[in-house]
Amino acid sequence: MSGILNSSIGRKFAMALSAFFLMFFLLQHFAINILSVFSPDTFNEASHFMGTFWPVQYILQPILIFGVIFHFVMGFILELKNRSARKVSYAKNNGAANSSWMSRNMIWSGLAILAFVGLHFYDFWFPEINTKFIDGDWSGLHNGEFRYFEELQHKFHSHVRTILYVIAFIFLALHLLHGFNSAFQSVGANNKYTKGLNGFGKAYAILIPLGFIFIAVYHHLNHVLS
Amino acid sequence: MNMNLTLKIWRQKNASDKGKMVDYKVSDISPDMSFLEMLDVLNEQLVNKDESPVAFDHDCREGICGMCSLYINGEAHGPDRGITTCQLHMRMFKDGDTITIEPFRATAFPVIKDLIVDRSSFDRIQHAGGFISVNTSGNTIDANAIPVNKEDADTAFEAATCIGCGACVATCKNSSAMLFVGAKVSQFALLPQGQVEATDRVLNMVKQMDDEGFGNCTNTGACEIECPKGISLENIARMNSEYLKASLKG
């Protein structure tokens, strides 16, 4: 058991577990963000709850940060190991004949998502950590009202930021289109339910990023058209 | 109609030579020839010119032995499906085509000469656990005396049709051997005769696979598409779950 993470299958398994966790987190993140379209008040309340509820802040948030870092670091380790497994490349290789673009380019879609995570942290997470842990302000208020919805709207005033978010979500969709079902295969689940699961995975991989794109574009257009 | 072709072939004198692609012309190639027969024609030309013939692996020439390899126009065993290189026919190509022919590429499959690679890493994986121990002292029990579920027997048989050619490794972008090892683990994991050594088998075979320097599977599915015997990805999933169970036990 101790050496499991040193084996190729153990690393795949760990990669898949972190992927499951991140996919669940993504769903939860989307469920809260979509509230900003339908009910700013509910979005504010949900955001304040998530931002101040101690189990979320002190247990789930550190697990999430660890999950994100682990997934990226393990992804890089696997990529380096895989590259060393073929030191001489083919003069002619027809990868498209037997595999999808998404499956062959997980490292590139992953790097695009990593760059986005950096931007997203700069936009929302670092200011939030600063307000709560440096300034010590846990009220969630600005000028007597909840600040979360206004902060969200303000970020999407910029054309460039909105475009960057849309591009990042397209890469997220490409990553998930392979990653969702790949994670199940890695934990040894390939059976009579696989076909149905593949369909669900494709729907998840398209609908969740599309939903995030809708939220970003909705707030941007609200600003542009107002 | 017979064809005139340009061949771009990897030539490498020995394991330590750097190697390079060399162009050759062959003419009057019948579409009914097999790919290996076309290479025989080329080699006859080269021998007649006192040049070194192109070294390539072959044996049964009927898709059973797993000896022939070759990466043809960017695909293991060439552009057709469910076949080995010896079963590839020249009718898959057109007059005037340029065909690129390379050895299977993987750190664990070092080139010996030209298009021949050393696939003994597969043998070492098999030695690590691809067997069952049976008493052959005269009291051997007939395997058919043990009832086996029909579905399991069929699935085990399908896994056992792997001929160990290495196309899965050659075609995988990570040079992963997991389809091969998955098939070898599965063929015993599904049968009662394989249960006694099941834990050690999967742990030892995976360890040997990793030690040989094969890459990690990222589930692109390319191996399943290019496998001449249609070995399914289900075998990798089965190996994964067998490995996890074995790791928890061990």
List the helices and strands and how they pair.
The complex is a heterodimer of chains A (226) and B (250).
Chain A lengths: L7 H26 L1 H4 L1 H13 L1 H31 L16 H4 L1 H29 L6 E2 L2 E2 L1 H8 L3 H28 L7 H32 L1
Antiparallel strand pairs in A: 1-2
Helix pairs in contact in A: 1-4, 1-8, 1-9, 6-8, 8-9
Chain B lengths: L2 E9 L8 E10 L5 H14 L22 E2 L2 E2 L21 E5 L8 E3 L2 E2 L2 H10 L20 H11 L6 H5 L6 H12 L8 H14 L10 H5 L7 H16 L1
Helix pairs in contact in B: 2-5, 2-6, 3-5, 5-6, 5-8, 6-8
Question: What report would you give on this structure?
Answer:
Chain B: InterPro entries: 2Fe-2S_ferredoxin-like_sf, 2Fe2S_fd_BS, 4Fe4S_Fe-S-bd, Beta-grasp_dom_sf, Helical_ferredxn, SDH/FRD_Iron-Sulfur, Succ_DH/fum_Rdtase_N. Chain B: One of its GO terms (molecular function) is electron transfer activity. Chain B: Belongs to the succinate dehydrogenase/fumarate reductase iron-sulfur protein family. Chain B: This is Succinate dehydrogenase / fumarate reductase iron-sulfur subunit. The complex is a heterodimer of chains A (226) and B (250). The mean pLDDT of chain A is 94. Chain A has a two-stranded antiparallel sheet. Chain A has helices at residues 8-33, 35-38, 40-52, 54-84, 101-104, 106-134, 148-155, 159-186, 194-225, and strands at residues 141-142, 145-146. Chain A has one domain: Fumarate reductase/succinate dehydrogenase, transmembrane subunit (3 helical TM bundles of succinate and fumarate reductases, Up-down Bundle), CATH 1.20.1300. Chain A is 77% helix and 2% strand. Chain A has 226 residues and is an all-alpha fold. Chain B has 250 residues and is an alpha+beta fold. Chain B folds into two domains: 3-113, Ubiquitin-like (UB roll), CATH 3.10.20; 119-135 and 144-249, Alpha-helical ferredoxin (Fumarate Reductase Iron-sulfur Protein, Chain B, domain 2, Orthogonal Bundle), CATH 1.10.1060. Chain B has a five-stranded mixed β-sheet. In chain B, helix 5 (178-189) runs antiparallel to helix 6 (198-211). Chain B is elongated and about 60 Å long. Chains A and B meet through helix 1, helix 4 and helix 8 of A and helix 6, helix 7 and helix 8 of B.
